[in-house]
Amino acid sequence: MPYADITGWGKCVPPAVLTNQDLMTFLDTSDEWISSRSGIKERRISHVSTATLAAMAAKRALAAADLDPADLDLVILGTACPDTLIPNAGSAVQDAIGAVNAAVFDLNAACTGFVYGLSVGTAMIRSGAMKKVLVIGADRIPYFLDYTMRDVSVLFGDGAGAVILEACDEECGLIAERLGCDGDARDILAARDSGTVRERFAGVDGFYDVNFEGQEIFKRAVRGMGEAVTSVLDKAGKSAEEIDLLIPHQANIRIIETLMKRLKTPEEKVVVNIQKYGNTSAATVPIALCEALEEGRVKPGDTLLTAAFGAGLTWGAGLIRWGKRVTPLSECKEDLPPSDKTALELLQPWIEGCQQAVAARG
Ligand SMILES: CC(C)(COP(=O)(O)OP(=O)(O)OC[C@H]1O[C@@H](n2cnc3c(N)ncnc32)[C@H](O)[C@@H]1OP(=O)(O)O)[C@@H](O)C(=O)NCCC(=O)NCCS
């Protein structure tokens, strides 16, 4: 049975930076509160669509693997923020990168979307059905936020990350995983009217009814990710000390620290970039993986542990045995189209729309 080596990786974060100070211009908050409670200093706001971010990350991953997009058998786009529901956003990515021979689907497991996608893509290769798979995590959660809610609207940012999986005979890639979902708690992190449940022609246009119970999510995240990593380590017959690098979902620095404590993982073995990007949902894990590779923190044959949780409440963990190559084979010279707008300018219509909608509701 073939394994699914990770042969390419790429990320795309939009250029506009939204700092904690920017948030203080319209929310009753402070840099001190946001950094001490979440670890976040700044996040990025996109001037392009989810599919455009995803396609750029994908092009960079294809370059790193030196792979012709026409050779891809499958594109999995992990996202909870598709630009359109019909058709899926993955088809726009396929079109943009020229993956003309690939099957394509979106996978919505919210922040766990990349870990779920990695599992599905790996299984397709291991079954022998496919040989080359592109897995992307891309999200724009800030699009859905209620900018009058100071707890939730400081946490998220936009971004995308991608990997290429290729069939290989040596034991590498995702070697064990555990995925799950606590559907009984699906309402505690929700944009309640974000699909066909929304009454057409009624309600306040453009406003999403966001429900966010931070402390309960926090507790469940710690439990879900904790159980998932323990189960994955058991499955693989590994101890936590054998992990070379922990790449956790970046939702809150205190959640990451709790996981580190549980696994007794020292700081130098953990990838943390939440201060720069906030929670980019399905993109946190692949972006963190890319940065770890860029910084030379992944060595050939290393054992990586990843864990994530998100709306649903989905959760999951995966153990990855890295292959031989830790440097890209080539580089993609393209970039996103330029924008002259600041992050606050990009957000302004949504901030005003939310303020007006909340005022109208009394
Ligand atoms: C949201 C979160 C950071 C809040 O941290 P917390 O320590 O639980 O804070 P609390 O909710 O207890 O709020 C404490 C106080 O800070 C206030 N507060 C909330 N957001 C604030 C903000 N941005 N700025 C200043 N004060 C804020 C609250 O109103 C509350 O005030 P009160 O005590 O007067 O009522 C935390 O619960 C969290 O990260 N949860 C997980 C959420 C998550 O990651 N979701 C994504 C899943 S993928």
From TrEMBL:
Give the EC number(s) under which this enzyme is classified. Answer: 2.3.1.180
> Which InterPro entries does the UniProt entry name for this protein?
ACP_syn_III_C, ACP_syn_III_N, FabH, Thiolase-like
Annotated catalysed reactions? malonyl-[ACP] + acetyl-CoA + H(+) = 3-oxobutanoyl-[ACP] + CO2 + CoA
- Name the UniProt key words of this record, in alphabetical order: Acyltransferase, Cytoplasm, Fatty acid biosynthesis, Fatty acid metabolism, Lipid biosynthesis, Lipid metabolism, Multifunctional enzyme, Transferase
Segments for region (ACP-binding): 250-254
Pathways per UniProt: Lipid metabolism; fatty acid biosynthesis
What cellular component terms from Gene Ontology apply here? cytoplasm
Principal localization reads: cytoplasm
Q: Which domain of life is it from?
A: Bacteria
Compartments annotated for it: namely: Cytoplasm
| Annotated Beta-ketoacyl-[acyl-carrier-protein] synthase III C-terminal domain residues | 233-322
Listed under GO biological process in this entry are: fatty acid biosynthetic process
Per UniProt, residues of the Beta-ketoacyl-[acyl-carrier-protein] synthase III N-terminal domain are 105-183
Question: What's the top EC group for this one?
Answer: transferase
Q: Which GO terms describe its molecular function?
A: 3-oxoacyl-[acyl-carrier-protein] synthase activity; beta-ketoacyl-acyl-carrier-protein synthase III activity
* SUPFAM superfamilies assigned to the protein according to its UniProt record, in alphabetical order: Thiolase-like (SSF53901)
Cross-referenced Pfam families, in alphabetical order? ACP_syn_III, ACP_syn_III_C
Q: Where in the sequence is the active site?
A: C111, H249, N279
- Say what the protein does: Catalyzes the condensation reaction of fatty acid synthesis by the addition to an acyl acceptor of two carbons from malonyl-ACP. Catalyzes the first condensation reaction which initiates fatty acid synthesis and may therefore play a role in governing the total rate of fatty acid production. Possesses both acetoacetyl-ACP synthase and acetyl transacylase activities. Its substrate specificity determines the biosynthesis of branched-chain and/or straight-chain of fatty acids.
- Quaternary state and partners of this protein? Homodimer.
Which family does the UniProt entry place this protein in?
Answer: Belongs to the thiolase-like superfamily. FabH family.
The domain comment in this protein's record states:
The last Arg residue of the ACP-binding site is essential for the weak association between ACP/AcpP and FabH.
Q: What is this protein called?
A: Beta-ketoacyl-[acyl-carrier-protein] synthase III
